Every structure is written in C-alpha cells, then in structure tokens.
C-alpha cells in the first residue's frame, strides 16, 4: 500500500483516464501537489505541468504555488525564475497576492534577496505575509539594519504586525541590535498583546539571554508565558549559562518535562563557555561534565548535530584527557563528521590541548577547508607558543606569511606573533609585524601596542620601545609594565625609578607585576638602593593594598644579596610569614655567586636540594659548587646521580639571525651548513682577541681535565659560534644580535668584549639575565 494514499488515488485516476483526466485543472493540481508531498519534487511536478500546457489547460494560482514550493524544497532558483516568467506572462504576479508571496518566498529561501526586494518593491498590493517574508530574509542574511528599516516602513504603512514579524525582528535584535532597540520591540509585543504568544516569548527569551542586564530579564519573560515548549525551557537554560549560573542551568535541565538534542547542545556549549576565567579544576570538571552529558545523549539515541560534535570536542579539550580525546576522535571519524571545516578545526584544537600536537600537525598537513584554514593555522601557532617552541611557531607563521596566504589576522593573533618575535629576539620579523599592524588598522588596539613595546624591548631596540610607548594614543597598566620590563632587560635601574615616579604623579595604580619589576630594578641602580627597595616592599600592602607573594620576597632577597647585605637577607628570609620556597633560596644563591660568599652559597644550596630534588638546574648548581671548591669527585657523583635518575639539564643554546632566518648553535656544534667557515673564522678571531689581551678563563670549565682540554672546551661555546657566524655574515654597520637561553659564562663575556674591540662591531647578546651590549671592548652591563 502506498504511504501517500491521496497521491496513489489521484495518480490512478490520471493513468486510467489519460488526457481526459487532465480536463480538470483542479485534479491536475492535486496530482502535482501529491508528487511534491511524496518527495518527487521538481522533475515530476514540472513534467505534469508540461502535460497540462499540452492539453490546453490553464494553470491556476495553486499550480504556481505548488511549483514554487517544489523549487524551494530543492533549492532550484533557475526553475523558479522560469515559473516567475510564466506567471508574469499569465498576469498572475500582479493579479494574485498568493502567487506573488510564493515568488517572494522562493527568492528569499533560495538566497536571491536582491530579486526578492526588487519584486517586493514592485508589488502593487502587499499583505503582512509579504512584509514578513522579506523581513525574515534580511534577518537570515544578517542585514539587521536593513531589517530594522523595513520594519519601520512596515509600521509607517500601518501594516498590522503579527507573531512572525515580531519573532523575526527579535532574532535580528538578538544578533545585531542593542538592548534599547530590543526593549522597544518587547514593548510593541506587549502593546499588541503578542507577548503571550509562544514564538514571540521564545524569541524574547533568546534576546534577553544575549543582551539582558541580568538573568532576571530572561526568567521574567519565561514565567509570564502561559504556554511553554521545549524551546522555552532550553532558552531559559541557555540564559542561565550566558550569565555564568551553571548550577541554575543544570537545575532547569533536571526540571524540563521534555528535552531534545538542542537542549543537550545548549548544556554542552554552556560548559565550554563557562570554563573561561575560572579555576583550572572547575574548568576540568566542566569538561568532564560535558563528556558525561554526551555519553547520556548517545545512550538516549538523540540526534548528533555538528553543533553537538563541536561542543563535545571543546569539552574534551577542556578536560585535557589524551585517552578520552582519542576515543572521541574515533567516534567523529566513524559518524562521518570529520569532513566539516569547523569540526576539523576544533579537532586540531582538541588534539593540541590534549597533548597530541603531532596528530594536530598531521591533520593540518591534509587540510582542505579554506573557510576554516585560519582557525586551524592559528591553533597550531598558539600550540607552539604554549609549548615554548618559538622557532616552530615562527616557521609556521613565516610559511604562510611569505606565501601570501595570510588573508586574516586579528588582534589576538598579531599579539601572539609579536610575542614570538620578542621571545626569540627576532627584530626583523617584529618590525614587519609592526608594519602589518599599521596596514591592518590594528595599531590603535592597546593590546597590540603593548605587544609592540614588549617586542622592541626584548629585541634590544630600547629607543624604539620608548618612542612607540610615547606615541600610543591609549595606555593601560600593561603598557607601563612593558616599558619597565624593556628598561630592566637593559639593566637601567635608575631610569625605572624615574618611570615609577612618573606613574605616581599620574596616579596610575600598580599591580603585583609592577612591584616585582621595580624591586628587581634595585639590583641595577648606580648606587646602593637596598633601603629604597625595602621601603617600597613595606608599602605594598600598607599603601597599595597588594599583598607580597613568594616572587616579591625572592626579588628582595636578590637585591639585598647583590649589594652585599647578606645578614639582612638571612634575617629577611627568617621573618617571612610563610615557609621560604625554592625561588627564595635560588635568589640568595645567585646573589651570593656575584659576591663569592661560599659559606652562604652552600647553605642556600642545601635548602634548594631539599625543596627541589628533581630539578635539573639544582643538580647543575650543586655540581658547579663542588667544582669551584675543587671537589671533583663530588661533582662527578652529582652528575652521575642525574644520569641514573634520568634527569637531563637544559643544554646551552645560542642563536642569531640572517636573511630573516634563525641560525641556532649548541656548544661544539658542527651541524650548521657553514660550520667549516664558522670554526675557521672563530679560530682566527680568537687569535686576534688574544693579541688584544684576551686570556681564556678555564675556571668556567667544571670538569677535572687537563688545562689544554679546558681551553678547548671554552673555545667553542654556543655564544662564540653564534657571534662568529653573525660577524661573518654582517654587512657594514650592522649590529650582531645573539640570544642565549641561559646565563652567559664569564669567559664568553670576556671574549666578546675583546671581539667587539678587534672587529669594531657592536655585539648585542641577550641571555637569561638581560642584555649585554659590547662596544669597543666595553659591556653595557658593567660587570
């Protein structure tokens, strides 16, 4: 038996009677409508319409409405245009409002809004359905201002609005209007008595969830609705989620008399939205709750939309569970959702956040979605930054930048790339990003400006950092902190105190970062500023309502040690309101090294070993301490213990820049393509430096070997290799820029002083402590 009995009976009559059956146009229209309802849309309906014309039967307005409905369902505007021409020929466009509205609907639903508007404004007669059709089309396409203007014309023309008009306009208000405009529509719904209508009430809930002053606006509309459906309850749930009231939203979820997949999507999306700006543990739990909800959806056999899958992937990324992410990834592939551009982009983000960066890169290598390419590419870039892989981040960016494929760059991405340039000391790329910010109109953004100041400071371009800061139209506290950091990297303590005085005059409230920077600057003033440091520290809580943290205590200890106030430093540590952490003892240890206080160094080392027994740097410091005391056996035992425990120290690495590329070196590294020339050049440069008075300081070799071996170890440190390559490639007047990942040893420091004198070149080295600018045999650090 046919599932469409009306279609079966009508078709049987037509088949039996042949052309005679077509003598009744009404019967032909009924047959055509049954074809459409049966899903045999455009082809069958058009063929029957053709038969009507051959039989000499005049189509009625219902014939055109049926055909246009078929065009909408199949998304066939070409056939719709032909039907329009035929209707115009038969004078149905002006003579039948029903046909005219059907044509409007066809053009709107098929995305031909200009044709719809042209027809709409040419109509001699319009009803509320005509206005609603065009209004909804404008809203769907996101042209909210035009929708608002059309609604104004509608009101001016005394057209009585209905629930469809208000629902469409409230949708526009939710997406593109402000609160006053939406409230005006709400007032109109009250005046017309339509607030109690189900569709209008649901639209009002959606509007206030997005633009309301508080969740009470949403709750008020919901409570006044006499009839509620699953959309109403879901809107209320979403409203609680939008205002961060997750527990209330879950309470609504439990009370709902009915749920659908949209409800579950709202909860999943809410979990993902509300993980931002909260504790890590809460975010992790939110991710797990989202995954639990997904499991419940599967068990209930609910529909899995793309919104569902995107939310599930986001929840998995929040939970940061590698095994779970692999299971969800497998499910996405099995259910065939992996071909969506937005789901694939979210997959990459999930892989990255779940520690599967290699899988994320593999997905990106096979990328085929242009519309979401920038999202996937940005995720990979941010992943490298988060993992501290700045070279990989720069190469990922440069690959797209040089190919000209960058079509989209926003404030966040630009700020990230500027941060990468600063971390690497990549001056040339940083300047190009500054230019790109100017071309993109993003220089006015305070975040971008702050990133530019920070980038120039970390790249050794202090003058550029100061100049840009002074020209910034808007500054916040981050701007001032970035400027102070730039001066701190150049060890300009007195200049930092001048900036602090300027901040106080301008009544700029400092934060904990500002205090940490100012306290640290006391190590680099021309005269002993330990007293000023202590006074500032005491004012933190009493005057500025900022409680000192562990890092502030550690910074004070370092300042006291640097100026030789070791007794005061120990007394300060003893008076701390909480147990001193490893950071405090490390600061004391480093300051003692500057003043050669061996007794206090050993005491600090013992505390450090007790607090951080697994930290590689602790073992290295211990080994070096033994070596300085010529306790070679103890030093070797410490290194042996490291190897047995599988603890590896961070290898010293230095890099320089040439032709917009990074050239990286390790100690005694011969992997560079020009290593033969570099080593030959370094040998020649060493001889020239020795003529100038340089003598290798073998006390910086921490191994019990022969003197000639110590000299050989010193000869090819990474900083010397990088500087030599820079000198070989440098043109006239070019500054040699080197960055080192750890503190530069004293022998390299001495060597580069003599190298700057021997070559007449300026050599800039940024190590973990800041900048060393070598000019004519003198270093800016004055150490």
From TrEMBL:
PPR repeat ranges, renumbered to this chain: 24-59, 127-161, 229-263, 476-510
Gene3D superfamilies: Tetratricopeptide repeat domain
One of the protein's GO biological processes: RNA modification
Boundaries of every DYW domain copy: 693-782
Pfam families according to UniProt: DYW_deaminase (PF14432), E_motif (PF20431), Eplus_motif (PF20430), PPR (PF01535), PPR_2 (PF13041)
Alphabetical keyword list: Repeat, Transit peptide
PANTHER family to which the protein is assigned, alphabetical: PENTATRICOPEPTIDE REPEAT-CONTAINING PROTEIN, REPEAT (PPR) SUPERFAMILY PROTEIN, PUTATIVE-RELATED
Entry protein name: DYW domain-containing protein
Natural source organism: Aegilops tauschii subsp. strangulata
């Amino acid at each position: 038996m046919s599932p469409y009995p009306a279609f079966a009976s009508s078709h049987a009559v037509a088949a039996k009677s042949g052309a005679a059956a077509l003598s009744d146009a009404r019967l032909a229209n009924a047959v055509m409508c049954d074809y459409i309802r049966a899903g045999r849309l455009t082809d069958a309906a058009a063929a029957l319409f053709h038969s009507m014309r051959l039989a000499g039967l005049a189509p009625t307005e219902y014939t055109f409405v049926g055909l246009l409905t078929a065009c909408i369902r199949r998304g066939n505007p070409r056939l719709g245009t032909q039907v329009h021409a035929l209707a115009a020929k038969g004078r149905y466009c002006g003579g039948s409002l029903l046909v005219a509205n059907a044509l409007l609907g066809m053009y709107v639903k098929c995305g031909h809004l200009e044709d719809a508007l042209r027809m709409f404004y040419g109509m001699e007669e319009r009803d509320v359905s005509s206005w609603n059709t065009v209004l909804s089309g404008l809203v769907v396409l996101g042209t909210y201002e035009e929708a608002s203007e059309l609604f104004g014309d509608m009101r001016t023309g005394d057209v009585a609005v209905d629930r469809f008009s208000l629902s469409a306009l409230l949708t526009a208000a939710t997406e593109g209007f402000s609160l006053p405009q939406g409230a005006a529509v709400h007032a109109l719904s009250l005046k017309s008595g339509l607030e109690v209508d189900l569709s209008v009430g649901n639209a009002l809930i959606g509007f206030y969830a997005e633009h309301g002053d508080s969740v009470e606006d949403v709750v008020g509309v919901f409570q006044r609705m006499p009839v509620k459906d699953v959309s109403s309850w879901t809107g209320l749930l979403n409203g609680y989620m939008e205002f961060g009231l997750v527990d209330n939203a879950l309470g609504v979820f439990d009370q709902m008399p009915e749920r659908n997949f949209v409800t579950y999507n709202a909860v999943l999306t809410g979990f993902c939205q509300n993980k931002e700006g909260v504790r890590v543990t809460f975010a992790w739990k939110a991710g797990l709750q989202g995954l639990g909800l997904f499991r419940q959806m599967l068990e209930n056999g609910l529909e899995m939309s793309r919104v569902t899958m995107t939310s599930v992937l986001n929840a998995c990324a929040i939970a940061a569970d590698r095994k779970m992410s692999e299971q969800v990834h497998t499910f996405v592939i099995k259910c065939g959702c992996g071909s969506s551009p937005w789901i694939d982009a979210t997959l990459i983000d999930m892989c990255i956040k779940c520690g599967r960066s290699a899988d994320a890169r593999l997905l990106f290598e096979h990328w085929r979605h242009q519309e979401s390419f920038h999202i996937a590419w940005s995720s990979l870039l941010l992943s490298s930054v988060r993992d501290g892989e700045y070279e990989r981040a720069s190469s990922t960016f440069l690959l797209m930048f040089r190919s000209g494929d960058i079509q989209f760059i926003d404030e966040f991405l630009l700020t990230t790339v500027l941060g990468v340039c600063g971390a690497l000391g990549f001056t040339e790329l940083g300047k190009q990003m500054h230019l790109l910010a100017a071309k993109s109109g993003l220089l006015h953004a305070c975040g971008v400006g702050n990133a530019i100041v920070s980038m120039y400071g970390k790249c050794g371009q202090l003058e550029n950092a100061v100049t840009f800061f002074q020209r910034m139209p808007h500054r916040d506290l981050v701007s001032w902190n970035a400027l102070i950091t730039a001066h701190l990297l150049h060890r300009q303590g007195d200049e930092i105190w001048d900036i602090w005085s300027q901040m106080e005059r301008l009544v700029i409230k400092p934060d904990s970062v500002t205090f940490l920077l100012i306290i640290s600057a006391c190590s680099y003033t021309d005269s002993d500023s330990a007293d000023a440091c202590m006074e500032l520290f005491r004012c933190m809580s009493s005057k500025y309502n900022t409680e000192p943290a562990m890092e502030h205590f550690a910074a004070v200890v370092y300042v006291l040690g640097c100026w030789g106030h070791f007794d005061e430093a120990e007394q300060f540590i003893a008076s701390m309101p909480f147990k001193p952490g490893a950071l405090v003892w490390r600061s004391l240890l480093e300051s003692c090294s500057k003043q050669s206080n061996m007794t206090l160094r050993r005491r600090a080392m013992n505390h450090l070993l007790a607090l951080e027994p697994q930290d590689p740097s602790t073992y290295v410091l211990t080994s070096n301490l033994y070596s300085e005391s010529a306790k070679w056996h103890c030093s070797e035992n410490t290194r042996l213990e490291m190897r047995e425990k599988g603890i590896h120290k961070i290898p010293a690495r230095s890099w320089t820049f040439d032709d917009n590329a990074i050239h990286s070196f390790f100690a005694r590294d011969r992997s560079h393509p020009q290593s033969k020339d570099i080593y030959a050049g370094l040998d020649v440069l060493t001889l020239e430096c020795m003529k100038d008075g340089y003598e290798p300081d073998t006390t910086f070799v921490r191994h019990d070997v022969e003197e000639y071996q110590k000299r050989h170890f010193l000869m090819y440190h990474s900083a010397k290799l990088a500087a030599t390559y820079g000198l070989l490639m440098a043109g006239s007047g070019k500054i040699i820029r080197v960055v080192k990942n750890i503190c530069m040893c004293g022998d390299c420091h001495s060597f580069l002083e003599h190298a700057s004198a021997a070559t007449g070149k300026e050599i800039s080295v940024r190590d973990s402590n800041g900048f060393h600018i070598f000019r004519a045999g003198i270093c800016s650090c004055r150490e």
